Every structure is written in structure tokens, then in C-alpha cells.
Amino acid sequence: xxxxxxxxxxxxxxxxxxxxxxxxxxxxxxxxxxxxxxxxxxxxxxxxxxxxxxxxxxxxxxxxxxxxxxxxxxxxxxxxxxxxxxxxxxxxxxxxxxxxxxxxxxxxxxxxxxxxxxxxxxxxxxxxxxxxxxxxxxxxxxxxxxxxxxxxxxxxxxxxxxxxxxxxxxxxxxxxxxxxxxxxxxxxxxxxxxxxxxxxxxxxxxxxxxxxxxxxxxxxxxxxxxxxxxxxxxxxxxxxxxxxxxxxxxxxxxxxxxxxxxxxxxxxxxxxxxxxxxxxxxxxxxxxxxxxxxxxxxxxxxxxxxxxxxxxxxxxxxxxxxxxxxxxxxxxxxxxxxxxxxxxxxxxxxxxxxxxxxxxxxxxxxxxxxxxxxxxxxxxxxxxxxxx
Length: 388
Fold this sequence. Notes:
11 helices, protein serine/threonine phosphatase activity, six-stranded antiparallel beta sheet, hydrolase, 34% helix, PP2C family protein-serine/threonine phosphatase, PPM-type_phosphatase-like_dom
């Protein structure tokens, strides 16, 4: 059987599998076509600290560290990694990703010899599996359950369901984002959408705590999406979302959001800065804060008029967006993290891919905070601009 024939057979089997049976099907297919002796699907948890095996509850298989294991190395590097297994066998760890959104790792144990020759085929099958997992999550909780090593609060459950993903790639850009505390977030949020010509990005700094913060963010994000999908310009999107939030809360609650609409062909962008999220830019080895004209948060007053500003990203730029739960967090002695510490963190992570940067910065933030419990959500979004 040729490589192409094997791939078609595997793809057909996965596309016709019941949503909850994807792992069983990929195990059967890899055993029949490649002689695989064991197959495990590991899903990245919400905190991006461990890879959780997909299993029938109650989960009895131990999670795998993202930081210190071979499977974690495949996840971080987004490249297949081969290691030796007992009896001369080879274990292949394959990233399971969809358009840059990193879901987890497929670990396959093969008989002795030949593993390296099959990496291309196995990586393609892992990619098909990723697409099917995304589709299957509409109809089953199996993969969403596997992603959690702890119980989510209800507010966090609502927020994670609202997000587009944690990373995304296109020819012109790479995006990565992460929220902390992953299992108890309140109202911070990010959203993005791309077409053939444009990339729209929202970075939201929520107000309040718990369910109320999550409900406020859900209303604002869905109002922004509704306006965006109606084809409105970014300043009009802000105005309509402002009306929706004010109409419901009458000024009692409001929401800060930084909105950017990029032209993919030129890097030119329109920006609405409605509140507190900040942008820092790494260009030519230098980090600087990019300040925009501050406008009112969404929903603070009735019928606020928003105006878009001009901005341009250059090829090679790294743009890092943060909420106030990052730059305003206090250390053990009360000093705010601030732009200087952020600058050091951005410099220290400059060689990491965009999808890895938010997690690395938030890890440093946790160390800066010391043993204290986070009093606010912390959000980091990293955009690497390649240009066209």
C-alpha cells in the first residue's frame, strides 16, 4: 500500500468516525496501516502546563508535563520528536494542531526501525485528527474534559467557550494568547478573525469578578462580533457594542477594549483604544510602548462617539498586548510590575515563537508576584507580523 493510499484510508476513517470515537478509530487505523503497538492522544490543559491523556472518566492515566518531557518538547517545538522505547521500538510524538492552534500531541509506538521514514505520513494524519477534534467538540465533551486538570469555575467555563483558540497562524502573522488564572478567570478576553484581506483583533480587560464579569464580557464580545459580521468599520463596531453594554447596564458596568483592524497586504491598521489594555512593540531589538488616544470604555456613557487612529506594523515586528492584571500586578514589596519589567520579559522571550510567548511572560509574572494569590485576571496576546 502506498503512502497516498494509507493517508486516504486514514482520513476517510477519521472523517466518518463518531465524535467520541476518534481516539479508538485512530488507534485501529495506525495499528492496521503502520503496525502501531500503542497510540495515545494528549490534550493541552487550559493552563498550558500539562498534556492530559484522553481517557474515559474517571481519568486514571497520569498527565505529562509540557516542560520536561519528550511529548512536551514536540508540543512546544511543533515538530515530530522520536525517542527509543523498550524492545527496540520507537515512540513518535506528533503535534496535533489546526492552523496554528496547538491542541495537543499524538504519541505512537512503532515496531523497530522505519519510524523516521513515516514521520511525514504520521504528521499529516495527526493534522487530520486535529481538524476532526475541533469539529467533534460541537457534539461531545470528551476532548474538553481531557483538557482540564482541575475543575473550572463557571465564569472560566463561560470565558473559555467564548475564545477563538489560543494560537493562530497565517502567511502574514502568527498569534498566541493565554489567560491566567486559567481555571478561575473572570472577564479578560481576546478575540480575532481573519479574511483574505484583513485581521481583526480585540483585547479586552474585564470589569468585576466571577459570573458578573463573565456576563459583561460575553455581551460586549458578541456585540462586537455582531457588528463586525455586519461588515461595519472598527469605530462603528465599538459604537454599537458601547450601545449594547450601556443599554443593559445603564453605566453601572463598562468594559475596556483595544481593537485593531489590520490590512494584511500593507500592515496598515485602524485602532480604537477604549480603555486600559496596553501594547508594547519589539522592533529591531528595541521594546517601546505604543500609546494611542485613550477613549472611553464601552458602556460607560450613552452614545459615545469613537474615532479610529492609524497604525502600521512592519515586517519583523512583535506586538505584545497585556491587560492591567499584568502591568499593574504588585510584587511582595508593593511595586507594580510595570513597563520596565514587561520590557525585560519581552526581550527575554524574543527567540520564542508567538504561541509560546504569553505563557512564558505569565510564568515570569507569577514569579514576580511571589507566593501571593492573583487578585485579577492576567492576559497576554503576542502577534508576530511577517507581512506579505
